[in-house]
Amino acid sequence: MIEQIGSTRTRVATAVAVLAIISAACSGSATPTPAASTAPSAAASVGASMAASPSPAASAAAGSLAGQSVTVIGTWGGSEQDAFMAMVKPWEDQTGATVKYTGTRDLNTVLTTGVASGVLPDLAGLPGPGQMDQWASSLVDLSTVLDVNTYKSETAAPLVDLGTVNGKMVGVFIKTSIKGLIWYDPKVLDLSAGAPTTWDALQTVIANNKTKAAAPWCLGVESGAASGWPGTDWIEDFVLRTAGPDVYNQWWQGKVKWTDPAIKAAWQSFGQIVAQSYGGGTAVNATNFANAGDPLFKTPPGCLFLHQASFITGLGAFPKMATGTDYNFFPFPDINTQFTGAVEGAGDLFGMFHNTPAAASLMAYLVTAPAQDIWVKIGGAISANKNATDYPDAISKRSADLLANAKVFVFDASDLMPTAMNNEFWADIVKYVQHPDQLDALLADLDKTQADAYAAQ
Amino acid sequence: MDPRLGTAVIVVLGVPAVLIGYIWLTERVLGLLGQRARPRLRPWLWLAPALAFLIVFLVYPSIGSLIRSFQNAAGTKFVGLDNYAWFFNDDATLIALKNSLIWLVVLTGLTVGLGLLIAVLVDRVRYETVAKSVIFVPLAISMVAASVIWTFMYDYQVPPNPQVGTLNAALGSAGIAPIAWVQISDFSLNSILLVIVMAWMWTGFCMVILSASLKGINPELLEAARVDGATERQVFRRITLPLMAPTIAVVMTTMVITALKAFDVVYVMTSGHFDTQVVAFQLIQELYNFGNPGRASAIGIVLLLAIVPVMAFNVRRFRAQEAIR
Amino acid sequence: MTAETVRAASVGRWARFGRRIPLHFVVIFLMVIWLIPTIGLLVNSFRPPEALTESGWWTAIFSPSQFTLNNYAHVLAQSNISAGFVNSLFISIPATVIPIMVAAFAAYAFAWMKFPGRDILFVVVVGLLVVPLQSTFIPILTLYGPKGLNIAGSFLAVWLAHTGYGLPFAIYLLRNFMGELPREVFESAAIDGASPVTSFFRLALPMTVPAIAALAIFQFLFVWNDLLVALIYIGAQNPDNAPLTIVVSNLVSSLGGGWQYLAAAAFVTMALPLAVFLALQRYFVRGIVGGSVKG
Which residues in A lie closer than 8 A to residue C50 (C-beta atoms)? Predict the structure, then answer.
């Protein structure tokens, strides 16, 4: 018995130790070495950025931050993560510091526990302006890190305001997108004479081209935990263009009820879109938003139009299509000409939790045009920086121009609402698509949540 | 060579060594004390390391939860039983409670029932290891991968496009139109389909434990019964099953609690839409998304109270076992 | 052997086989049902992403030309995949060994030592199974953080956490199996003058090996596949220590692009736990207990 136990334990221990040794040896060095200092090409781009926006804290003399690191957390994964790492590479090469990025879909969980316990990364992608408000006291005042005047001159004013809480600037937009673009296939629909600029004109185009596709609209709202958000974009566009930006803004601030006739009318208009969608309500709820536009390119086409944000060009069947020839867009048409020229946008906010020299330097670098240009050039992103213009194709350039030149700019309403309200908005879209006859009950529920969620703020 | 390897080896070899040393030391100390003190103190010394971990990692946060369940969202003032009142009056909660009950019954029934059946059956075939590995594989697949698998299984494509989902394709070959499975809440069908996903993963868990228990039964007992003329079924019902009863109870208790805490499958596949919401997922949403730890804690305490009957059953079982031993 | 007995023996063999056909049928049927979903994913992991949304995985079997190793190549080409693998090992092995040892001592105490309040205390320990992990993150992270021990981001943080989280089930399982051991064995050992320590190491532990093997499999598996605990306690603080699960979750963009890599990643990460399972199968041997009771 003694030998049995002894040998079992020894055997297990040896096996474990051997396994650990072998694996460690096979993997070589598991700890990443800090980026080597100066690369000549990187110095040129940073030099340009220094000229464009002299910032106090980012006085990065070559290799001055060697060996230091900045921890960053965000929701970006896959190709987005690659784009972000490409964006920070010149900074790493120039300063000698390393960016250690962790991507996660559980950003809310990590940052909520982080703020409560004090265990936080240096920089973080923030889930939205609503959440940023909640954590404002833990976030560093970015005016100590960036040259605020330069930043303000390079960025659209509404975006600057959205990053400010009680006068303290805590968030900056690393990338933005424009919502509510109407995508179509120019080979199916010839709009070279001019895209429809009013809702009625759009309906005429649909009526004239009915036979070309199985349904007028493509729509898919499935998106995991956020299922329903494409529907919220539709309703926001309707509210914006029928009731105007003032009502829109009061609405997301909780001052306009969901049962208000204007909001209800927007839901009903959305209901009509669902009824005109490829595959009907069942398909709308079952189809992931990224693949929802694929029927545009089928033969015969499943639909004529897709309503979606600018980042759709990197998803589904779009990347394989030729931009401009296989797909094109026009902005959401006006419904009430009183509110013409209104544009809805969204974006990824970044904030800082620890004001270390390396983190400050990185933050200052990220908002500069050359840094922004890196991601913009890779595609699928629009920059908040007006001077970042290296767009890879005409379509991206047009979307960026739309954003930069918007007469009236509003931010995605659901992103601005308290999270509980936002969640209910998303969830009720799914319910409405499945049960269009329950609109009144859903709106009443939304009102209840509104009373609850805004009071807790 | 990775510097952390040194730490890891020290920990893997050192911690057991430290624990054994600790026990050895306590025996020494006990030897110095009186004859009567030893059996009274020894259990507590042996339990001390485990209790220390449990108190720090599970009891202390639970006490915090209890206190917070009586506070408002910001944690600034006490609101008495408001959070509990919200929980039991909210419409969404009632659906979640119903679904959690379905999870409890169906998941436990499927996993323990199938686990037992499979453990008993594969015990008699020569390719037992292969069979057990096949049933076990889903447990080894991470939650993320399992969700990808079953999203494919239940997938729905607009007809007449070709169906990509296995279920709908099977229907298609029988000439039936495709169904959007996860959207159907009639008879809680979608909840049951989600339970099936988790049962697919966890039956292997029950099977492994029940198989270990099965193998612990003295074969001489079974042989003796067979020699006495008992049929296989009688042997199973009169000898095997009663001898496995304690382990079955353990597996059942564990699965009941797992079912109550289950949220991964719901989170990934429907996020609670289409009336599939469960209590555990509500807890997480309140805590991390809605910033309301007060309500989340109240839900946690409700879960704790919900298992009291299960625990009472366990206590009774131990007492009965002790009486026999 | 006469011709008659030979014939009788072979008839008996066939009869036994005939009786066993339903058994084999049921077992193989169950195996097939269990395997189909996984095989679907396996086939899909070799297909390009466009094909996944256009046609079912079974169609690929008839057109093998579309098979590609791109998904696997992409996953294995990730710069931090080997680091993630090593980190997962660093995390999983201690987080399996420590709880088993701690639980074994506690389980023996609960099973074979009498003390007042034993059953109630045991039930409380088991009841702790219901505590949701998520509700422990904030208090524990505060303890680990700058206001406390300041070990956030280190492996020690997750080792301790996984031990704490894994103990209720470990104690429950081990106590059950230890309690099943024949009382006579311990009694005769006590009569022979053996101390509880000796009984534990020389009798209880060896006889509970199947349960310990099962526990090792589950604990290792749970820790190996865990994402959230590692993310919270190591995550943003120290991405160098990120395990495989975090690396894999980063294969997909926030908008869902790249999900075809998850299929390949699933099989890459599944290999080791499966190997552990197979390696520990030999401990599920009949008669370990039976052999020790000598009447």
Answer: 317, 320
Residue A34 confidence (pLDDT) above 60: no
Element (H or E) spanning A341, and its range? none
Cα(A343)–Cα(C62) distance, integer angstroms: 50
Show which of C68, C89, C104 is a domain's final residue: C68
Q: What is the mean pLDDT of residues A50-60?
A: 40
Q: Is B160 helix (H, G, I), strand (E, B) or coil?
A: coil
Per-residue pLDDT at A126 exceeds 70 = yes
Cross-chain residue pair A112–B291, CB shorter than 8 Å: yes
Report the relative pairing of strands A98-103 and A181-184 from DSSP bridges.
Answer: unpaired
A287 touches chain B (CB under 8 A): yes
- Phi then psi dihedrals of residue C145, to 5 deg: -85, -170
C-beta atoms of B183 and A286 within 8 A: yes
| Proportion of chain B above pLDDT 90, given as a percent | 59
Same structural domain, C126 and C161: yes
Q: How many Å apart are CA C139 and CA B58, to the nearest integer? A: 10
| 8 Å CB contact between A268 and A245 | no
* A105 within 8 A of A139, measured Cβ to Cβ: no
What is the crossing angle of helices C260-280 and C3-44, to 10°?
150
pLDDT at C61: 80
Tell me what pLDDT residue B7 has. 82
Provide CATH code, domain B85-324. Answer: 1.10.3720.10
The answer to whether residues C282 and C213 belong to one domain is yes
Decide: residue B31, CB within 10 A, 0-12 exposed, 13-18 middle, 19+ buried: exposed
Which residues from chain A sit within 8 angstroms of residue B272, using beta carbons?
427
Q: Within 10 A of C239 (CB to CB), how many other CB atoms are there? A: 26
Question: What's the CA gap between A428 and A231, in Å, rounded?
Answer: 10
Q: Chain A 393-452, CB below 8 Å of chain C: which residues?
A: none
How far is it, in rounded angstroms, from Cα B263 to Cα B285? 11
Kindly report the nearest CA distance between residue A10 and chain B, in angstroms.
10
What DSSP string runs through A404-424?
HT-SEEEE-HHHHS-HHHHHH
Q: Which of C89, C237, C258 sits opposite A78 (nearest CB)?
A: C258
Residues C83 and C50 occupy one common structural domain: no
Q: What is the CB neighbour count within 10 angstroms for residue A438?
A: 13
Closest-approach residue (CA) in chain A for B274: A431
Kindly state whether residues C257 and C181 are assigned to the same domain: yes
Domain tally, chain C = 2
pLDDT at residue A363 greater than cutoff 60: yes
Q: What is the domain extent for residue C134?
A: 75-292
What is the interface size between A and B, counted as CB pairs within 8 Å?
Answer: 83
Cβ proximity of B211 and B283 under 8 Å? no
Q: How far apart are CA A54 and CA C12, in angstroms?
A: 94
Integer angstrom CA distances of residue B233 from A27, B118, B119, B239, B241: 54, 15, 15, 10, 10
Q: How many angstroms separate the CA of residue B145 from the nearest CA in chain C? A: 6
- Looking at the fold, whether C117 and C254 belong to one and the same domain comes out as yes
For residues C140 and C214, state if they share a domain: yes
Question: Could you tell me if C103 and C27 lie in one domain?
Answer: no
Mark whether C12 and C132 lie in a shared domain: no
Residue type, C10: S
Write out pLDDT tens, residues A299-324: 899 999 999 999 999 888 898 899 88
Question: φ, ψ for residue A303 (rounded to 5)?
Answer: -155, 165
Return the structure tokens found at A235.
Answer: 């309703």
